[in-house]
From TrEMBL:
<feature type="domain" description="Cyclic nucleotide-binding">
    <location>
        <begin position="30"/>
        <end position="110"/>
    </location>
</feature>
<dbReference type="Pfam" id="PF00027">
    <property type="entry name" value="cNMP_binding"/>
</dbReference>
<dbReference type="InterPro" id="IPR000595">
    <property type="entry name" value="cNMP-bd_dom"/>
</dbReference>
<protein>
    <submittedName>
        <fullName>Crp/Fnr family transcriptional regulator</fullName>
    </submittedName>
</protein>
<dbReference type="InterPro" id="IPR014710">
    <property type="entry name" value="RmlC-like_jellyroll"/>
</dbReference>
<dbReference type="InterPro" id="IPR018490">
    <property type="entry name" value="cNMP-bd_dom_sf"/>
</dbReference>
Amino acid sequence: MTKLLKQNIAAHISLSDTEMEEFCNLFEQKTIPKKSFLLREGEVCKFEGFVIEGLFRVYHIDKSGFEQVLYFAFENWWITDIDSFTTETPSQLFIEALEDSEVLLISKEDKEYAYANLPKIEKLFRVMTQKTHVALQRRMIDNLSKTAESRYIEFAEKYPQLIQRLSNIQVAAYLGITNVFLSNIRKKIAVKK
């Protein structure tokens, strides 16, 4: 089950076979059934995870009770609450499996071990952190400067396989709009075609 993880790592850094095995052996495989939580608000996040199968949503519930989806994580994606994981404070997020899922989890202690004993691993996480910051910055700019319709079109074009796996409600929560507004956008797009 570590084949996908090894491919993901190799896309970012070069490790010897020994280093790769040592690092991958630090991960624990876990099965998360559909509608189950990998993390709930108020818990301390004790892992960084790599999705090998399935689909997760990472979300927050605001004071009005509305879900705000930060991101979806599917095969070949990393998943965590980096704030809670890093600071060892209670999470403000939920991480829920939307499908039966398999993840590989690494603990903070094992990650620190890897940093100390496999120096290239720090570069791996630095590169991934930079890519995450770029994606979050772009998403913030898009949310501030683009219409909901253009954000939906870009999301559908960027993640066509995801659109098929998500409900309208989940996509709407990601876009920060209501399900009814999303339905109107989809109708409007269909008429244009």
